[in-house]
Amino acid sequence: MVNKCYPSADAAVRDIGDGATIMFGGFGFCGIPERLIDALARRGVKNLTGMSNNCGLGGRGVDILVRNRQIRKMVATFPAQREPTPFEEQYLAGQVELELVPQGTFAERIRAGGAGVGGFYTRTGVGTPLAEGKERRVIAGVEYVLELPLRADFALIHAYRGDRYGNLIYRGTARNFGPEMATAADVTIAEVEELVEVGELNPEAVITPGIYVDRIVAVGKAS
Amino acid sequence: MKGGLTRQEVAKRAAQELRGGMYVNLGMGIPTLVTRCVPAGLTVFLQSEHGILGLGPPPPPGGEDPDFVDASRMPVTVIPGASLFSSAESFAMIRGRHLDMTILGAYQVSARGDLANWMIPERGVGSIGGAMDLVYGARRVVVTMEHVTKDGKPRVVERCSYPLTGRECVDLIVTDLAVIEVGSDGLVLKEVAPGVTPQEVQAETGAKLTVSPELREIRV
């Protein structure tokens, strides 16, 4: 019987080791894999490279790993908030690295990583400091920069409902980077609010097909 | 100089750029206020780059749902007929030039329409979010901002001193003092705030303005 279910978030992240590269779904507080991140914090692994829209805020999600000094580098689109965060303080003190990426380029690099695409040309970033050092190309009179795919050892994502085959659906804006990140890691771990029987999810409505998901853990509704 | 529009009035003036049936992305800051200024009876589809087409007003107190937030992470609703999608889909929509317009905040705009809105160099770190994709993806880029900085320095400048978000991408600038169009021959002063003269606007601007023959007062 195919069963990708794990009994707990701790069991699902047990083989994530020091130095791992990890994608974290979520936008702000919306759709972050909080229980998996909590489990990673309990494991205490260090020197992690994280890929996430934000670098954590408010003592939740990636912020916990930053405060624990488990993060070595972040690839992110929106690291600076209105008020300074622990990540910003560590970055300005030279204690963590940052690769800043425009949000659409971030999403597309992950999509490329999961879709076997070796890179893509985009106008985004042309004429800005972010284009420095990147291959430039003019196509039909328009200037583009080359962006390369992103992949990770693990992707940690949050979904609304899933089944033991790993099929997932999301809710509202909690979907954000989940569908792309699920495709772009060697091991994708999904926490779901509700685990349902195989066949219960309408195949027409499945957003992430189970082929992309390696482990699934039911965590209940977020508090 | 006294006078000038409030932030809400700047948003109201920017909202006059909306037309029925448009697909529009609103950035953080003053653009967020535009949501409340959409004229009654006008159907505009607001896009939020983390995956909403058909952003609605904020929910009533107690009706917040943590799975539904806007790009500023505030609780929102979606309108009937809305759709939800992933980030890659959202930015394919943006990059693929499907949006009619974006309204963004700014630190600086240059005479040729360069935009700087993601980093104040002194802070040492900035946040880009979707702005760099939006400035080249949306078919029209409207900027809303205060005309000068807190210490009175012009934000409309000959050349941006802050790192750019995009080059030659801004079409229209709406500030508390003026509405300025970025034309092929430079900046054209189209409208001035009530009680403000073109000379006063020029004095607060770091680039040369050409006064439009159809210059008028901003009506909000």
Structure commentary:
The complex is a heterodimer of chains A (223) and B (220). By secondary structure, chain A is α/β, with parallel strands linked by helices. Chain A has a single domain, classed as Glutaconate Coenzyme A-transferase. Helices cover 20% and strands 26% of the residues of chain A. Chain A has helices spanning 9-12, 34-43, 62-67, 86-92, 103-115, 178-181; strands at residues 21-24, 48-51, 71-76, 97-100, 120-122, 136-139, 142-147, 152-162, 168-169, 185-195, 215-218. In chain A, the strands form 2 sheets. In chain A, strands 1, 2, 3, 4, 8, 9, 10 and 11 form an 8-stranded mixed beta sheet that branches. Chain A has a 3-stranded antiparallel beta sheet with strand order 5-7-6. The longest helix of chain A is centred in the middle third of the chain and has 13 residues, at 103-115. The two termini of chain A are 32 Å apart. The mean pLDDT of chain A is 97. With 220 residues, chain B is α/β, with parallel strands linked by helices. Chain B has one domain: Glutaconate Coenzyme A-transferase (3-Layer(aba) Sandwich), CATH 3.40.1080.10. In chain B, helix 2 (30-34) links the parallel strand 1 and strand 2. In chain B, helix 3 (87-95) packs parallel to helix 4 (131-137). The longest helix of chain B is centred in the N-terminal third of the chain and has 9 residues, at 7-15. The two termini of chain B are 20 Å apart. At the A-B interface, helix 4, helix 5 and helix 6 of A face helix 3 and helix 4 of B.
What's the CATH class of chain A, please?
Answer: Alpha Beta
Instruction: Report, as a whole number of angstroms, the end-to-end distance of chain B.
Output: 20 Å
CATH fold node name of chain A: Glutaconate Coenzyme A-transferase
Biggest interchain interface, per-side counts: A-B, 49 and 41 residues
CATH superfamily of chain B: Glutaconate Coenzyme A-transferase
Q: What number is the mean pLDDT of chain B? A: 95
Write down the CATH class of chain B. Answer: Alpha Beta
By CATH, the superfamily of chain A comes out as: Glutaconate Coenzyme A-transferase
Domains of chain A (count): 1
- Which residues of chain A sit in consecutive blocks of at least 5 with pLDDT less than 50? none
Please give the CATH architecture of chain B: 3-Layer(aba) Sandwich
- Per CATH, which architecture of chain A? 3-Layer(aba) Sandwich
- The total count of helices of chain B amounts to 5
CATH topology of chain B: Glutaconate Coenzyme A-transferase
